[in-house]
Fold each of these.
Amino acid sequence: MVTIHDLTPVSEFEWEIPADARKGMRVGVRLFATRRLLEAVLKDNAVQQAVNAASLPGLAGPVVVMPDMHQGYGFPIGGVAATALPDGVISPGGIGYDINCGVRLMASAVPLEAAQPYLERLVTALDQHCPSGVGTAGSLRLSDADLEKVCRLGAGWAQQRGWATEMDLRRCEDGGCLPEADPASVSPRARERGRTQLGTLGAGNHFIEVGVVEDVYDLEAAQAMGLEPGCLTLMIHCGSRGFGHQICTDAVQSLQGAVRRYGISIPDRELVCAPLDSPEGRAYLGAMRSAANYAFANRQILAHQARLAFEAALAGVVRNFHLHLVYDITHNIAKLETHTLNGRAQRVCVHRKGATRAFGPGSPDLPPEYAHTGQPVLVPGSMGTGSWVLAGTAESMERSYASSCHGAGRVFSRSQAKREIRGEALLRALEKQGIQVRAGSMGGLAEEAPQAYKDVDEVVRTVCGAGITRKVARLRPVAVVKG
DNA sequence: ATGTCC
């Protein structure tokens, strides 16, 4: 068991566990957290899981953990690990079940005051245009050929259908498409689940939130992103639905064999993995990229549906209701990137699980309009508490494999939240705050209660205090759609 | 997160 005494403070916002702290560790662990956040997470298994992850073969540097960390499958949510050839592995636990779960932020020039009388109509329209809930099918029924195209093209598939602009794609991480997806490595069962779910939101912590730009901390960056104080925004949080879930399930099963065949020693069977250049590792990478592209297409289609909902609710009564894409990020993914480690540029496989890429200014992977601001980093808070727009920094390139936090992060489990919180009472409390809510189930709402999450403002204070991102703007929620 | 157990 890891206690606060195993952690060496580096600053108010950063801690270290040295590589020789525990048997089996190959690298150290670097944690970004305040003492208060750390004490909360030491009650669950997240830090121990980071220590376990530090024993994976072929790590190129320390395992990094973000302040919104909490316990996940094998590997902590909020964790970042970089592995390198020749010994490096890929581990599905380091990515998560919801492959390319991510966040898309859109913004408008509609002042809240102008839209206020139509908010109820707007949230109803969003609820009708964006199907949500566990197991929910959308209106699309993909043929085998179309599903393969979605796997290969990502958001580009939506563009072919007329549901995305060139600017939409440019403002997605990786242009909304990871190269070298291999749909042939996707099981028939995953394909069957994926066929009907494109263009759906899902459940759990997935949501669509209408917000208003409340506070601006970096005027130049906010202007570059088209974030106008007092105007409406729309945030979509969702992933690859049953398709990605099945791909992860299949990989966790099949990589158990790889661990045996390659004689890999792991401290927790949930850390199953395979060498990056093995047939098993390559097959998972190809399937994972297929799920990632499915999720990019999913968020793009939901964005198109949200634009139709804005039109349905606001056309004729509010001017300039167009929603432009600010950015689309993924926070559950592994990607091949070049990072400078120990003074030398290295090609590494960066696993980010509940962590957001945060490229600094001047990165060649950013669209030109963000060359000076750095990558937009989108941080949804817990329901009703506000969300943040941050930007990547040069510091993140050096300290965290160009990564930052992804949200508030749980402090207690879904089951505990369900036991302790009444969905109906929460709904009334949110409405009292002036937040319109459309929720598929009261139990599901209770699971996502703000009391079950850490304080997103403290999480953001930590990553900005540590210098791995900087504040751009804070968004206040005015309406939310949940599965 | 998830057709929350094929």
Amino acid sequence: MYIKMATLANGQADNASLSTNGLGSSPGSAGHMNGLSHSPGNPSTIPMKDHDAIKLFIGQIPRNLDEKDLKPLFEEFGKIYELTVLKDRFTGMHKGCAFLTYCERESALKAQSALHEQKTLPGMNRPIQVKPADSESRGEDRKLFVGMLNKQQSEDDVRRLFEAFGNIEECTILRGPDGNSKGCAFVKYSSHAEAQAAINALHGSQTMPGASSSLVVKFADTDKERTMRRMQQMAGQMGMFNPMAIPFGAYGAYAQALMQQQAALMASVAQGGYLNPMAAFAAAQMQQMAALNMNGLAAAPMTPTSGGSTPPGITAPAVPSIPSPIGVNGFTGLPPQANGQPAAEAVFANGIHPYPAQSPTAADPLQQAYAGVQPYAGPAYPAAYGQISQAFPQPPPMIPQQQREGPEGCNLLIYHLPQEFGDAELMQMFLPFGFVSFDNPASAQTAIQAMNGFQIGMKRLKVQLKRPKDANRPY
DNA sequence: TGCGATT
């Protein structure tokens, strides 16, 4: 844990640090352990595949069919090199689809033409899909997303609409679990130019009956955009902090620090075994997303007040939303509290160096009192948390029984909080920096650097280390 | 206003 936190502290200054965490994609690395066809034992029987073999995506598979059930169906087109049913990474649940590689390219082509949309497996209401996996084609630049369709329109209707602009390789209406159209579709052309021509001709060109606005025709999300979108959806579902609610241009330090810290925190907790599958998934997504952001995707210039355009899938609220509880670590409650918010509150984190605040508006006197209400995870907490990341004995301790001031040099003072800011908000905002588990000096630094000057509405926070007690009484 | 069941 402490190692991770050290990494985070560095990451704050060095955006590249997350790119070394092994999150990179590994195309074609799907292990053969799940594969079907490799004969154990005699090496001479290990199948070889053509260099130009095609990995096929198989969709619309009943969930009660596993590799051995599927094998006979596909074997008639050639020798199978690998067949893997896709399963949920955490729950192991059959996802209703598979990847299939034949030893020979020709077999794949035969299977595709014989099976794709040609038959429907028992229990399915849509025909089987047999087509090159996305990883084979790299076709994002010729795939269109079509929105604002009439929900009655079929694949054929959409094809007719788009066929004049090029050769359509794939046309799929997006449907909900009930099979009803979601009013949108993917259309993949053979070339980027064809796709662009369709956009030029069709986007906004007409309004389908029942649609709320004119036809949308645009390039489909890239991998990165898709990851971001999923991340956002999941964060929303879980009621978690939503990193994308905060525009990176304006709040880069905060967002990055949060994301990195949350990713590390959740990952280490996950290793300890406390996280439920959803949260573990969230952790993985979070890491992926942090990595993506480090690569600059979300670094597009935009601020709440700039009036700039918003990239697809990213919302830019006028006021940054306040992170809500993470929902891990057992931190579901909040400390007891005296209400009536002062303009400044002392907040305890675990840090060391004195750090001069540099807010331009920092004329406020210190006599604003450290009145408050300190959500502080006492000394017992870090130790207990340390266990978690190692072996995972007990769940993390809950909220501390009583308010306590942290060691000297570890307490932050926050000025210019909004009136409506209560402990809950305060705690949520600062929790990632120190309340939970981090007792190294870098945490306080991270929090200060990320949060000092952070704008909430019309105000800018002032965050600095609380002065030692004796230094606080100049008179 | 909706981006697939894709290692």
